[in-house]
Automatic annotation (TrEMBL), chains A, B, C, D, E, F:
The lineage of its organism: Eukaryota, Metazoa, Chordata, Craniata, Vertebrata. Keywords: Acetylation, Fatty acid metabolism, Isomerase, Lipid metabolism, Peroxisome. GO terms for cellular component: mitochondrion; peroxisome. GO terms for molecular function: delta(3,5)-delta(2,4)-dienoyl-CoA isomerase activity. It is found in: Peroxisome. This is Delta(3,5)-Delta(2,4)-dienoyl-CoA isomerase, mitochondrial. The keyword Membrane does not apply. Isomerization of 3-trans,5-cis-dienoyl-CoA to 2-trans,4-trans-dienoyl-CoA. It catalyses: (3E,5Z)-octadienoyl-CoA = (2E,4E)-octadienoyl-CoA; (3E,5Z,8Z,11Z,14Z)-eicosapentaenoyl-CoA = (2E,4E,8Z,11Z,14Z)-eicosapentaenoyl-CoA. It comes from Xyrichtys novacula. GO terms for biological process: fatty acid metabolic process.
């Protein structure tokens, strides 16, 4: 949680932690959508698919004040939207995200509040919890979230992507757990989720303790991402194709799968099995099973079935 | 749990989810054993090694009604059999398993039972729990289980292999978490165990949410299997060799290792260490330690020692 | 826990589990330090970095009686030493460690104590717990520990390195979970920590149940180590460079990161986030954040900042 | 969760589960307050004390549609209100509450929604979770909540009071876990919290399985309430006096105590201690300690200190 | 687990731990039932009620070899029996139970089995687990179990009753955690369940560490039992009346209540609520709710409703 | 943790939180023992019984600097002392304890250490953890601890007694969770342990949030103590008699009982049973069982058996 940084006098926006930033061409594919958000662009590239784009390309999609609250609104709506079965998240412009936007956050949380250290701490704790919520909503949303990363994914960006379900990246992508570089332990999700999404604890520790960059190949071999694409265009196409595969399957099956995968992460196998049985005792009672099985028998794709909304 | 599928009219056995099945030659190596089972063939290829073969090659080892209960009987016996120190599981015929056998299961569980939805759910929950048990017995059996997979490993097959301890496969093997394709969340173990046996959560989610196939190379690089063999013959030989290595060591050491590895998976490190200390306070008091240490001093393999049965 | 081995008559030191041992040249880089320890050499190769060397090269750094207690003293002191921000652990001489030193341990724990089996077990439990503590102190120490492994890392060596935070090795390194070879389940940490530091459970089980050696390449691809170096010299240089990166960052950030990474390993994501918020509500109130952010704005490395001691 | 009841034709409001209801005189002490709520009356009987009154006396404070959402709004505001340090909850009129208001709820949730059983279940789960939230907000509010119960406390009333911190009642109070009487297992908190607030599990089970009434004396001897008063008037006076004692102490101390008591309920002692240490490392840094200690030295009550708001 | 006692030469049955035993008149109310058991008598005193009587009055219902296995069979059948909605357990003859029957057990488990201490321990562990199961089946049975205790309830008797849901006793009942008196820590449930059924930990510890007797009054005030009756006859009548109350309510509601009460005991409130929501999303879809609510509206008892079997 | 209080100018020792203190006659029964401690008196009133007396009667046994460390040393020694099987703790002089000694602690921890708030917090956390240890050693000591309380038991006194196993008090005893009165949440055990030793959560919350006194009768009815004695003399006699009962039983049985009771408190029933089975698989292999059973058969007390030391 970076809010306290704002105490330092920050005088000029200079691209944050990115080595250089040149001209950034706004090329958001969703520029024509009438988004209610200023930091996000929402579009519907195909049936049942919602595309959420980090959309401040001129600021390298740095996470400003608006972003932290709009994400909560956005994913709360997605969770309730029966027309959405899967979400794709990506970044507009040159990079996925440069992480937190120090300039913008400063104007909001300029001074620590509280009459003594205990009260300042009390308020900080509430603020941290609020920021954690920005990414936890992704996890609580029962619709799968595919995130497609290109260029830089720094600081808060890693917090964001580890809360998503499937991670894809371009060959030029790089990842950086930046927080120790600015004097703090990452507190909105990276330290909790990164070790649970990749298999090498030595690598997790190295990344978090040294803030070194990790590039696409290592991201793939370590399992952080499950696919690497040559460039952003093919990646977005690949992400949408994958999203289409998911959207074409029974929403009862798909969302139940997500809910139980997350439950299982945080419980023993025995507890996960028990929960699963209590879940499916009702969720098996769906016409989707019959329709899907029928399609399977007929050698058709489940995508040929018109499932009821959920 | 697929039992509810049977409500749909399934009229003809056509290989389930396998693209094509041509002629399947029954070539089970255990065809001469007098197995008490109809879906499994049991043999003893070497001292202290039990070989459990999925043995309905003409049906692609599809998991029929007999299978779900025979597995429980079989592994309960193995757990109690002092002559068995390690188990190898493989599939007879062309593939490891095509997953659940819809035809056969249909005849058994044709109608959901219960006077209202709550009662149907109640009964479904008991059925799911019973099917979960079919694979949990593998985990509870203190003897290590090496599974050797060739060709297809679909649906229930993934539930099965993730409950085993060591996974090997052939170059032509492929794996598919099939459940979302037929409208349900996998409920007999895959969602609970797969994330705990491989390191990439993005990959786990992709497999479970899209039902795409994973081939041998990715299975190896992701850690699902720890070895890939060129063909079934060399794999079975390799599996038996590995089983021989395990069978040749102290059963007190080997089975205690399995029990504690599984305990540790579901507990914190501190709790795992505490349990381990309470375990070994008695298990160290075995002649096996002296005999093994003696062999080690004399540069002999532990396999040269004749350990007492356990 | 190997203490009971001593009941067997062990008559001659012959290199333990290493295939051959030839002449071992003592080449400890810390030979000039006036260490208070007989099994460890302590040096300070750079500011804020403590180098702990397993230092009985003529015995292949076998873990003798002194080692098991000196480690506790050593890491307790390091934990309290404000001049230390990061630790490097390596082995003097030809190999990292041959594991437990049966000869030396024998003289200490010659007879199991206790008037009946229950009392012997009671005492064994206390002994095991004491030995577990030897490696748990590494984990409890809030300063990151980088371990650099060359040559053999056998038995107790695997217990040791899995309790460290970052693992590096040379191309000639090999690892062996040796315990089943001498008739016991590993009880001082390997079975608890190895599955949590690498992503392939099949591999973990194979290593622990067969005691086969794993070489550097597999250690890297499985994630046990995060980097492989061509030889010991470059590895030590690499380890010190990495340690320098860590030491150059805010100790509040770095140590808070380690504490929370370990906490998260043993808790659900939700619990980890809650703990993190309670942690950072005070830890964000540090001048390190401002100093680090300032350096970041000025495109300077955090290493340019002189952080207060912790 | 009772929403499904509404499927049954409910034709006339007849006092729900109360044996008889005669004339109910509205005697809410907060009748003059300009409450933004229709089911609750909010007043401030003394400094730093908020009084929340269930305020539909003519309906025996039955929990209607408005109530379930107003409670969330009300306690969310209280949690943020620096002028509130403690809350008193009571019921206006003749009884504390008759439980859920079937009539009013029916108009809202008349039909189960969803195209098949799975979808209906999915929606029911969300509804249950939402209703659970109505009482969980009480627990999450860091300000202590004293509940004062007179007359009947039925069904949802027990869910409510077990989420409060301190329970007081009148001699004529009675409690009833009513849910089994209408064909369901209590699902908004009673089954989870009642066993953790009283010590006799046999009694908990008896109450929940038979729906028998428990009167004030047994409520006191079983520990459900910690004090019994002769009548409502003296109870409200007693509740306010107790609230005054709490409000007069350091809010940092009081609210930290509540937070950690709830944390401890759900964790082991070791985990509770660890969390406590991480909490107090900042919360001890308050002027309240010095001010309170000073008062203590001077034999003054902490109530004489003017603590900063929190 | 007392099996090892049999090593001691036990030469004569002398009433175990009971001070004197005089003539015991067999007065089992179920003497006319054709029970398949030798240690238990099963009867059906009223519709949907199963009465399980410890039925070796001439041996003070000491728990012999048959008892330990018959309990498992008996409760497994009860769990599956749709005609049973509630169970009453009591003891035939003069006392509830004198605890384990040393004489009979001796003939079965005369010698510890195993070639060394580790193997003996291994077998003991399996035996203990098997005996634990004898009482855990009571807990796993979803039908509520009311236990009615008169006279002595010693050793294994306390293990048994703490696994039941509701405990009643006569004025002459007494309870004794006997195990420390014979040199062992109680290992079939008392140490795990007693602290969770009564509220005073000091009392639990005193009972378990000193083996002192506790009489009816203290059993009531401590919450071990929820009702005390003057004599056995009135107690049995009271137990049956209470069982009738439970049997007359919706089995979906009643059994769901038991399942969730036990789940909640072993989980945090948040986890219990989550499980409850997943449970009731299907269990609310029952005609029992409508029927029960209708009866409630009409001021009828739920016992007037004819619920479908479960 | 009260260390920060010392920042306030404390000028005169005036009896802390006790209303008045008059003349305190030193009447420690252990005055003749040559204790190595200044705050504690150690004696051995009977075989296998260790009596630990809080022994600064002139200071009302206020917990000074020496106390906090001597307790750790004392109980560490007791845990290892084979001649001790049970411990009695009481207070010399007029009261049990007045709680923390502000005067003495002030001289030790006068200033918070650390260059910024984060560093001060870091150090405070270590200090709190150290103080928590003072009482956790009581719990970790496998020998049962009986505490006998007379007069006042304030603040730290409640932390102390809730970590003991059995609590006795005199009719004039009173208890006070004092911490909120001095501006902090109790952080060395009360908030974690008090709710787990008494059954009424409403009472726990009331005591902790209002700091009101609780007298002997309520302590008994709430289960905090399991026996009340008319005066200190009879209480000490009663405590020693109870200690004698415990000391006269098998130490393997008694200490295994304590270890497992504490384990069970913090785990589910299923986990407690599993741990118990792993514990007793060795602990049943003791001659104590045979000796105890023999005595039982012969109608002798277990106290007649001469058990081996543990």
């Amino acid at each position: 949680m970076l809010s306290v940084i704002v105490r330092s006098a920050v005088t000029k926006y200079r691209g944050l932690w990115l080595p250089g930033q040149a001209a950034v061409r706004a090329m958001s594919s969703s520029s024509s959508s009438s988004s209610p958000y200023t930091s996000l662009a929402i579009s519907h590239p195909a049936e049942s698919i919602t595309h959420v784009e980090l959309n401040r390309p001129e600021k390298l999609n740095a996470m400003n004040k608006a972003f932290w609250s709009e994400m909560v609104t956005c994913f709360t709506e997605i969770a309730e939207d029966p027309n959405c079965r899967v979400v794709v998240v990506s970044g507009a412009g040159r990079v996925f995200t440069a992480g937190i936007d120090l300039m913008d956050m400063a104007s909001d949380v300029l001074q620590p509040r509280g009459d003594d250290m205990a009260r300042i701490s009390w308020n900080l704790r509430k603020t941290i919890a609020k920021y954690q919520e920005t990414f936890s909503v992704i996890e609580r949303c029962p619709k799968p979230v595919v995130v497609a990363i290109h260029g830089a994914c720094v600081g808060g960006g890693v917090d964001l992507i580890t809360a998503c379900d499937i991670r894809l990246c371009t060959q030029d992508a790089w990842f950086q757990v930046k927080e120790v570089d600015i004097g703090l332990a990452a507190d909105v999700g990276t330290l909790q989720r990164l070790p649970k999404v990749i298999g090498s604890r030595s690598l997790v520790n190295e990344l978090a303790l040294t803030a070194r960059k990790m590039y696409a190949d290592e991201a793939k071999s370590s399992g952080l991402v499950s696919r690497v694409f040559p460039d952003k265009e093919t990646m977005i196409a690949g992400a949408l194709e994958m999203a289409g595969e998911i959207a074409g399957r029974s929403p009862v099956a798909v969302q139940g799968t997500k809910v139980n995968l997350i439950y299982s992460r945080d419980h023993s196998v025995a507890e996960g099995l028990d929960y699963m049985a209590s879940w499916n005792m009702s969720m098996l009672q769906t016409q989707d099973v019959m329709q899907s099985a029928q399609a399977s028998m007929e050698k058709k794709s489940p995508k040929s079935v018109a499932f009821s909304k959920l």
